[in-house]
């Protein structure tokens, strides 16, 4: 019950309330989706780089690539891209890794624009519902020609309900929008910071071995012996 009315009647009597209800459902779905996404794809740059560098130094690039592919998060995806492009020089490798970071940043920011729009739209829709509700209340009073303070107060209270509902949706949505935006920026900056470390690590391995992933040099086969001369000589 809201203002002495069943919940169904409150929404049935206002198109704005129905729109706000739809906004609340969509906003909740986006908040949950982003929560699950960041829970699965968050990473610790320091720990991840330490483990990756240990595997690379001790077991080589083949084992390091297999190890990176086992971890389903953007950090180890960056490591895998670095190994797959290890033949490039440092500048070109940095460009490749920067492109990867940009692609991941787009994934981090997915649906955040819609979440921010819903936060602002819900508040404005609530104000719109209040204005239209007040107009309708005073219009009804002018038509009937009757109504005291009690009638006017009831109409105003019903009109302000849309503002309250809009704020109820907009404030939490705006909070999660800012939180997820900050989370996205932090993850992207962490990936950018580790790019230089990966390049330095691979360049160090190149200097030590002459190649990050040296191929075994095949021993040349001796030339075949000349064919025997089977002609009869007299």
Low-confidence stretches: 214-220, 229-234
Give the overall silhouette: rod-shaped
Element order: H for helix, E for strand: HHHHHHHH
Strand content: under 5%
Largest sheet: none
Oligomer: single chain
Distance between the termini: 125 Å
**Rg for CA atoms:** 33 Å
Q: What is the total tally of β strands?
A: 0
Helix coverage percent: over 70%
**Count of individual helical segments:** 8
Average the pLDDT over all residues and give the rounded result. Answer: 82
Structural class based on helices, strands and sheet pairing: mainly alpha
Number of structurally distinct domains: 1
Pfam families: MotA_ExbB
Transmembrane segments: 15-36, 117-139, 159-180
InterPro entries: ExbB/TolQ_transport, MotA_ExbB_proton_chnl
Membrane topology: Multi-pass membrane protein
Provide a brief overview of the structure:
With about 230 residues, the chain is an all-alpha fold.
Structure description:
- The chain is mostly helical and 234 residues long.
- The chain has one domain (7-208).
- Helices cover 78% and strands 0% of the residues.
- The chain has eight helices and no strands.
- It is rod-shaped and about 95 Å long.
- This is MotA/TolQ/ExbB proton channel family protein.
- Pfam families: MotA_ExbB.
- It is a multi-pass membrane protein.
List keywords for this structure.
8 helices, mainly alpha, 234 residues
Summarize the helices and strands and which ones pair or pack:
Elements lengths: L6 H6 L2 H27 L3 H15 L1 H10 L3 H11 L5 H19 L3 H33 L4 H61 L25
Keywords: Cell membrane, Membrane, Protein transport, Transmembrane, Transmembrane helix, Transport
Pfam family, one: MotA_ExbB
Subcellular location: Cell membrane; Membrane
């Amino acid at each position: 019950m809201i203002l002495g009315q069943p919940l169904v009647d409150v929404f049935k009597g206002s198109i704005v309330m129905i729109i706000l209800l739809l906004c609340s459902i969509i906003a909740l779905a986006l908040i949950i989706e982003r929560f699950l996404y960041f829970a699965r794809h968050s990473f610790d740059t320091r720990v991840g780089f330490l483990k990756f560098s240990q595997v690379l130094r001790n077991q080589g690039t083949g084992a390091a690539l297999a190890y990176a592919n086992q971890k389903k998060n953007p950090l180890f995806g960056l490591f895998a891209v670095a190994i797959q492009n290890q033949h490039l020089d440092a500048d070109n490798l940095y460009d490749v890794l920067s492109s990867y970071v940009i692609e991941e940043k787009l994934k981090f920011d997915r649906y955040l624009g819609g979440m921010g729009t819903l936060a602002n739209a819900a508040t404005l829709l609530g104000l719109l519902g209040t204005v239209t509700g007040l107009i309708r209340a005073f219009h009804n009073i002018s038509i009937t020609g009757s109504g005291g303070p009690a009638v006017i107060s009831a109409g105003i209270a019903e009109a302000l309900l849309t503002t309250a509902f809009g704020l109820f949706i907009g404030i939490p949505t705006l909070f999660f929008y800012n939180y997820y935006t900050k989370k996205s920026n932090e993850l992207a900056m962490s990936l950018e910071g580790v790019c230089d470390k990966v390049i330095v690590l691979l360049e160090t391995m190149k200097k030590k071995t002459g190649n990050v992933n040296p191929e075994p040099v095949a021993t040349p086969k001796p030339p075949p012996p000349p064919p025997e001369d089977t002609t009869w000589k007299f």
